[in-house]
Design goal:
With 421 residues, the chain is mainly alpha-helical. It has 18 helices and 2 strands. It starts with a helix and ends in a 14-residue tail after the last helix. It is a multi-pass membrane protein.
């Protein structure tokens, strides 16, 4: 079934449901705001691009999606791919790759192949997710420590020696703000999980920079003023040569968006005892990525942490996700200058915490108890993600997983257990 959940929920919608969705949407927006900015910065894009992505992509994913409570937006899983595409092909190349990825997702949803995602080995998903988390964390060390590095290499093996060589340039003020923000994020998450702790922690860290006159970079000092309105939509360059050049990146973006969104929807189903529509979800992901690209945004997908926040805050229908997008739009229209004061070490703390959560450390011991084939598959995918390329890692991981499954064809595959990201 490919009908959006919004149409289903509207048949019995009420004022009480709207009030629940309104409160949840505002709460999720406060979580999504600093994350969207931080993910855009880590991806090598202008921070305002993250807001555009959360607004446009998030609205379409909720309005057209197959889950009652899914929240869409830019996520950490895309940082590695986006950074590489922007570095090699510029922002225009990323926009085209995102546009093509949206078309691929529409095709996948139209031909009802949403459930095929469950056949991707879980070890491969865990491997590239942990690998992405390692890359994200390493990319934030410069801003977390305040290191004086003019050109930080994108390659992990080249990046680490450069960071180590610059260790003596660490800025004590920057490190203090980063540790303060990280400590507050952890504290709020444990003591007040319903509070939008991310925005509160980043705000306190940034306020310390402003009031103390600390020599710490902010969004405004490094990137200039944030946009106070959405850009005009326009089609990307669709020349044949450009399309062929960026098609591999589009395939990876589409794969990540499909896997991440359906995993998120599965986790949401378990939390609300519901059932999402996978093919409607893929269609929504396709529409969301096309819409985001038309406004010059980043790739979008279902965001597991934000979806869980929506559920815990009382979100009941897709209206909550649409409210979350509209609240971020209002912030952009009326408070963009204030967001420029956000301190970059505080944003780095947000992403380091995101990377830690992505790696799911509470499951590491369980991985060691898995069959040796799963452990090898996870390790191979992880290493290839970190030291080679995410595209290679996914291709090799899926191919190797298929070979192992064929090798043990007489053994029925275990039931899919979605990660709790």
């Amino acid at each position: 079934m490919r009908q959006p959940k919004l149409l289903t929920t509207m048949r019995t919608y009420s004022w009480s449901l709207f009030l629940s969705d309104l409160a949840a949407g505002i709460t999720v927006a406060m979580v999504a705001l600093p994350l969207s900015l931080a993910i855009a910065i880590a991806s090598g894009a202008d921070p305002g691009t993250g807001l555009v992505t959360a607004i446009v992509g998030g609205f379409f994913i909720s309005a057209l999606g197959g889950s009652r409570v899914q929240i869409g937006g830019p996520t950490g899983a895309f940082i590695v791919v986006v950074y590489g595409v922007i570095a090699s092909h510029g922002l225009s190349g990323l926009v085209l790759a995102t546009f093509m990825a949206g078309i691929l997702l529409l095709i996948a949803g139209f031909f009802r192949i949403g459930r095929l995602i469950s056949h991707v080995p879980e070890a491969v998903v865990n491997g590239f997710t942990i690998g992405i988390a390692i890359i994200i964390a390493s990319s934030q060390l410069k801003d977390f420590l305040g290191l004086d590095v003019s050109n930080l290499p994108a390659d992990f093996l080249e990046k680490i020696p450069v960071l180590w060589a610059a260790r003596d340039t660490a800025n004590p003020s920057t490190l203090t703000v980063a540790l303060l923000s990280l400590g507050l994020i952890i504290l709020f998450r444990r003591l007040a999980p319903k509070l939008p702790g991310l925005i509160v922690a980043v705000a306190i860290g940034s306020l310390a920079v402003v009031l103390g006159g600390l020599p710490v970079d902010t969004i405004a000092t490094r990137f200039g003023a944030l946009p106070s309105s959405l850009p005009a939509p326009h089609l990307p360059d669709l020349s044949l040569a450009r399309v062929i050049e960026l098609f591999p990146s589009a395939v990876v973006i589409a794969f990540l968006a499909g896997v991440e969104s359906l995993l998120s929807a599965l986790v949401a189903d378990r939390m609300i005892d519901g059932h999402h529509r996978p093919n409607a979800e893929l269609l929504a992901q396709g529409a969301g990525n096309i819409a985001s690209s038309l406004f010059g945004g980043l790739p979008v997908t279902g965001a597991i942490a934000r979806t869980a926040t929506n559920i815990r805050a009382g979100g009941k229908t897709p209206v909550a996700g649409m409210v979350h997008a509209l609240v971020i739009l209002i912030v952009m229209l009326v408070a963009a200058p204030l967001a420029g004061y956000l301190a970059l070490p505080a944003m780095a703390a947000v992403l380091i915490m995101t990377a830690w959560n992505m790696s799911e450390p509470h499951k590491w011991a369980g991985y060691l108890a898995e069959p040796w084939t799963d452990r090898i598959l996870l390790l191979v995918t992880l290493v290839l993600t970190v030291v080679v390329d995410l595209t290679v890692a996914i291709g090799v991981g899926v191919a190797l997983g298929l070979l192992l499954r064929l090798r043990h064809a007489e053994v029925l595959p275990e039931d899919w257990t979605p990660p709790e990201r």
